[in-house]
Amino acid sequence: MSEPTAVLFDAPGPRARRRAFIASVVAGLVIAGVVALIVLRLAERGQLDAELWSPLVDPSDEQFDAVWQRIGEGLLVTLRAAFFAVVLSLVIGLALAAARLSLGRVARIPLIGVIELLRGLPVIVSILYVDVLMRALDVYQGSVTTLVIALTLYNSVIISEITRAGILSLPKGQVEAGLAVGLTRGQVMRTIQLPQAVRVMLPAIISQLIVILKDTALASIVLSQIEDLLKIADQLGGFLDNRLQSYFVIGLIYIAINLLLEQLAKLVQRRMSGQGRRRRTRASTAPDAEQQTDTDAADRTTGTRP
Amino acid sequence: MRKTRSAAFAATVTALLTLTACGGDDASTGAEGEVAQPEVDTSATFEAGTTMAEVQEAGTVTIGTKFDQPGFGLADLEGTPAGFDVEVAEYVAAQMGVSPEDIEWVEAPSARREDLIANGDVDMVVATYTINDKRKERITFAGPYYVAGQQIMVNADNTTITGPEDLAANPDVKICSVTGSTPAENIRQYLASPDQLVTFEVYDDCVSAMQNGQVQALTTDNVILTGYVAENEGEFKLVGEQFTEEPYGIGIEKGNTAFCEFINESLTEMAESGAYEEAWTATAGQYEGTEVPELPELDPCA
Amino acid sequence: MDPVLENLGLFASGFLRSLGIAAWGLLGSLVWGTVLAVFRISPVPVLRAFGTFYVTWLRNTPLAIVLFTMAFGIPAVGINASYYVFGVVGLVLYTSAFVCEAVRSGVATVPTGQAEAARSIGLTFSQTLGLIVLPQALRAVVPPVGNVLIAMIKNSAVVGALGVGGDLFSVYNRLTSAQGYAALPVLTGVAIGFLVMTLTASALLALFERRAAVAR
What we know:
The complex is a heterotrimer of chains A (about 300), B (about 300) and C (about 220). Chain A has helices at about 5-10, 15-45, 50-55, 65-100, 110-120, 125-135, 145-170, 170-180, 185-215, 220, 230-240, 245-280, 295-300. With about 300 residues, chain A is mainly alpha-helical. The two termini of chain A are about 20 Å apart. By secondary structure, chain B is an alpha/beta fold. Chain B folds into 2 domains: about 45-145 and about 245-285, Periplasmic binding protein-like II (D-Maltodextrin-Binding Protein, domain 2, 3-Layer(aba) Sandwich), CATH 3.40.190.10; about 150-240, Periplasmic binding protein-like II (D-Maltodextrin-Binding Protein, domain 2). Helices cover about 35% and strands about 20% of the residues of chain B. Chain B is built from 11 helices and 13 strands. In chain B, helix 3 (about 85-95) packs across helix 10. Residues about 1-35 of chain B have low confidence and may be disordered. With about 220 residues, chain C is mainly alpha-helical. Chain C has a single domain (about 1-215), classed as Orthogonal Bundle (MetI-like fold). In chain C, helix 2 (about 10-40) runs antiparallel to helix 7 (about 125-165), helix 6 packs across helix 7 and helix 8 packs antiparallel against helix 9 (about 185-215). Chain C is elongated. The chains are: A mainly alpha (about 300), B alpha/beta (about 300), C mainly alpha (about 220). At the A-C interface, helix 1, helix 2, helix 5, helix 6 and helix 9 of A face helix 3, helix 4, helix 5, helix 6 and helix 7 of C.
């Protein structure tokens, strides 16, 4: 049970426990009832028929191998697009954040303008824009490149905003100390501010990565040539005449990847925060001076340290 | 949604099996029957500088077509399209000395056809492409090579809708078509409110929507509807007369009169040699209720 | 920009339609998202489990899949309604998962002493939450929820692709493919329309944040 939950109600006594139990049963029955109704209706209309599912889930089905080969190909396109978009967004995002904070009051106005524009556009419009522009300028490099560029444009701006918030949250003394020992402003940014900001903002950055992965799916709505995971779901659903089922299975794949990403993120985060704490203790600075992350707190309470 | 599209289903199996077989052979297993390949004219000579000469020199041609239109251009899972549009395009390409396997196919969805041509991404577009004046501002049309007409398809037991005129009188009826298509625009004038029109990216979704009761009618060119009626035995029927004329043209770069004239000559030849009729019967003509068309009178290339 | 000026009426009606989708989505996601957040911190285990499952599921699924499941899944269980309704419901179901998390994290910022004090004077869970914690959480909740809702306005562009039609984004397809206008100016018009919505929303949010900050 997480901390806020525990504070909101008393440790339940016998009566409260009984009430919670009754509420649980009622809620459980309602949820089970709705699920059962849906399943029943779907079965009635033949949506649960084996022939609709077997090409997707039954390895002995003659189409199973071909279907999953296609899904594998689509998955590869999605992962590749997401990977490049993530790496580019991180690099450009950090650079943008540094630039915005280093530039003078006037010099950063155009930069802020561009950032606000890109942030305000729906990703689906950005993708189409990049597509149309690249074709018009005769530099079209294929749909995956289009998607990567569009996602990078949008997400590097978001990541730069996240990082900027992180940098601003750092104690002023960090910069002053850096300058005092003779580092240039650029060096202070690179070696002192950015590394700490990234650590503080890691959870936000990670959840942005999941957003990027999900946003790759938007490409299949507006780019006809791309064959990402969602487009494959479209194609399979059209060819096998089982759109609902195909979408369900592909949806599960997206969820699985995202959950994996989340676990990975938690691992990385625990590592990094663990390191940070050790270093802090050695330097004997005031404890808990900075923002603690979720897992940080969890670490302390459960005592699990990497 | 019961085993309604056995034809498409069989095609999938073929397509998927070809995939697993890792087919290195070039046999295109399209959804439609295969026609004898057009004879490649290797002896033709063209004036230097024309598109034909450039294509002949390169030995390849890039053609845009639909990938989702049964009977005209329907791609298998590998992205090789088959259909009447494809046959016509292959015939024209052959006249420039390019054999079908050297054609590079590009999907040309309704929304992108003019851009594909104007940006020079493709040499021509053969994609159920209705000739109209607005489009002529940006591109030039050769042809027409076929005249379709818009019609309405409803569930077999529907008796309220007998033609486009009945739509306004029944404001509860929803009619489906494809986003940004000419039929979707044409039907608007018959509706009581714009909310009566539902649009999806592909016709497949419209058919699903009809089957699950979300919409009561589907409208587009008669040849496409005939395909759905045939594939979903007894479920749907066409009602009313064709209420528009949709001459299908071949879209090319604006002002390329020489290429336009060449395509028109090729079309005439195709009709005279019987290849036109053969191509039709092997593709769109396979659906019940279609008649073998004659090559319409060609527009002058201006 | 001629294509935009010639079809100003179409753009205007598309803009209004998108605004309508966003407004309904906003209302729905705020309500359902808060309910979900309450589920997730309630003393009833089944509700907590349901909340967790819901948020995990919806937050990790691409919006297009959620919307598609609405458009074709709900009729498949025998419920027919307009695609506009399905689109809005899909948008709400998706967005509320994010609203829920934002609200929950806001609740976590209220000092624990507040809830403890409330309990010690005998308030129940719903009283503690409704009278003490949520009102105080509001301030911390505004920025993240605001950002979620601005993201939702942008996501409403996807809704139009699934059968709704008549919205700002579908104006693009209508003008370019059916009527043959050049893509770039039309798309620019669409982009401006969305920017008007999102930038206004951002400005309102900033204003609201400033007032909330003063009230502290």
